[in-house]
Amino acid sequence: MRYFLTVLMVGLLSASVAFGGTIRGIVKDSDTQEPLIGANVVVEGTAMGATTDYEGFFLIEGVPEGQYTVTISYIGYKEYQEQVNVGAGETVTLNVVLTPIALSAKAINVVADRAIERETPVAFTNVRKVEIQARLGSQDIPMVLNTTPSVYATPQGGGAGDARINVRGFDQRNVAIMINGVPVNDMENGWVYWSNWDGVGDATSSIQIQRGLSAVNLATPSIGGTMNIITDPAAVQAGGVFKQELGAGNFIKSTLVLNTGLLNDKYAFSFAVVRKTGDGIVDATWTDAWAYYFGAVYNINPKNRLEFYALGAPQRHGQNLYKQNIAVYSRKLAESLSDYDPEAFTKYNEAGR
């Protein structure tokens, strides 16, 4: 009986794995052969689809067995359709090139230049969304780059949002940090306060870190390198996700993401809200934070599209810094200060006493 159950379970597992097929592929520009980022891929007659990543790659899993029409569209390009036969457990690969449609005006690229492998003469690393989701967790965004060459990131003070990043030995005052191509370094000293961007990691689709003087055509402090964070566009498919993370120190993080999908072939909206609280593992590293992200797309016509992004992170958090109360060093000096609170002596004792 035991052997029969084992065989039956293996059989059921094999059947479930082979139930659906997979459609995957790469979408490129027919003239330049560069990958097209954000192209829409739809399996007609179903609610299934995908959006290409920064390498032009897309993946649609769990497609029921049968014959389908796959439609691939991108603003400013001629729509592409192809008939495919999907078998159970099989993978269909499409290598698609889209033909640009002649535009009356020169296109404007609103996202700062991203390096392309074997074309741009700069050392760089791309981090995909799947890698970000697997490694980032509830940390600040720089921490996901610790495994890339010439990059060192640390939580610094230990509090949420206090991370810093060094590239090729330069601190982040000399590293250009951009979100969707917009520089976010402080105007005065070039620093980046990640607590202001808490929650961006939940809305990030990819990160490119360029080491050394970069290919970005902006006046940014990029001697050490450039970090370009690209957020998710409004999703074409309707749906939602709720995620909750728990950790030590009463840590709890709740994330809600909602997508309307494409409405009347014109509009698409995406919204995400994050709530994060915790006492911290290390003393004084508590956090009490909100974060929100809103993305909207409006298709004006087949040649033009408007995209709007809004994000914010109202929050408060504690820090575990190296500073000590003056009474720890000299009780006598503390007593001589007119504005020193005597109640502090009950908490801080002079070292060695």
What do you see in this structure?
The protein has 353 residues and is mostly beta strands. The chain has four domains: 2-98, Immunoglobulin-like; 123-231, Beta Complex (Ferric Hydroxamate Uptake Protein, Chain A, domain 1); 239-317, no CATH class; 323-353, no CATH class. The protein is 9% helix and 40% strand. It contains four helices and 20 strands. The strands form five sheets. Strands 15, 16, 17, 18, 19 and 20 form a six-stranded antiparallel sheet that branches. A five-stranded mixed sheet has the order 8-13-14-11-12. A four-stranded antiparallel sheet has the order 3-2-5-6, with no helix packed on it. β16 and β17 form a beta hairpin. The protein starts with a helix and ends in a 17-residue tail after the last helix.
Describe what is shown at a glance.
Helix content is 9%, strand content 40%.
Q: Which second-level CATH architecture of the largest domain applies?
A: Beta Complex
β-sheet strand percentage: 35-45%
How much helix is in the residues?
Answer: under 10%
- Based on Cα principal axes, name the global outline: elongated
Mean pLDDT: 81
